[in-house]
């Protein structure tokens, strides 16, 4: 199977607002009923202005970027994310992935998620793109 070439410096960004409807869907998918995520009153008592968006839902935005960079024949082989700050439901987030190095058919990427328009970093990490089928 042939793979499109991966090039250091290639990048893709994606911006999205974290919505109440999607928060409810992710609650159902994950089964996470933590008060910060499902109860605005409890979240406000903890100091947030609204419910906190699920960290992995926010990080999931970066998978859109990685998919675009990797193309149809690559998948995420690994991902490591540091969650620097919470995202509040209703916030807009820009996810970005950039290829920083290539070794054979694998690429190491830097992943970031920032609040829009402030630019405050909420997620920073790395991911590796690998061929879907090895060999």
Q: What do you see in this structure?
A:
The chain has 135 residues and is α+β, with helices and mostly antiparallel strands. The chain has a domain at 8-17 and 54-129: Hotdog Thioesterase (Thiol Ester Dehydrase, Chain A, Roll), CATH 3.10.129. The chain is 27% helix and 38% strand. The protein has four helices and five strands; from the N terminus they run βααααββββ. It has helices at 20-30, 35-38, 40-45, 55-70, and strands at 11-17, 74-83, 92-103, 106-116, 121-131. It has a five-stranded antiparallel sheet with strand order 1-3-4-5-2, with helices on one face. A hairpin with a 2-residue loop joins strand 3 (92-103) and strand 4 (106-116). The radius of gyration is 16 Å and the shape is elongated. 25% of the residues are buried.
CATH class of the domain at 8-17 and 54-129: Alpha Beta
The portion of residues assigned to helices is 25-40%
The neighbouring-strand order within the major sheet is 1-3-4-5-2
Beta content comes to 35-45%
Biggest beta sheet summary: 5 strands, antiparallel
Order of helices and strands: EHHHHEEEE
Q: Can you tell me the CATH superfamily of the domain at 8-17 and 54-129?
A: Hotdog Thioesterase
| CATH fold descriptor of the domain at 8-17 and 54-129 | Thiol Ester Dehydrase, Chain A
Low-pLDDT runs of 5+ residues are none
Structure annotation, total helices: 4
CATH architecture of the domain at 8-17 and 54-129: Roll
Q: Would you tell me the structural class of the helices and strands?
A: alpha+beta
Radius of gyration: 16 Å
In total, the number of strands is 5
Overall mean pLDDT stands at: 93
Shape: elongated
What gap, in angstroms, lies between the N and C termini? 8 Å
Domain MaoC-like: 9-108
Protein name: Acyl dehydratase
Organism: Bradyrhizobium frederickii
InterPro entries: HotDog_dom_sf (IPR029069), MaoC-like_dom (IPR002539), UPF0336/Enoyl-CoA_hydratase (IPR050965)
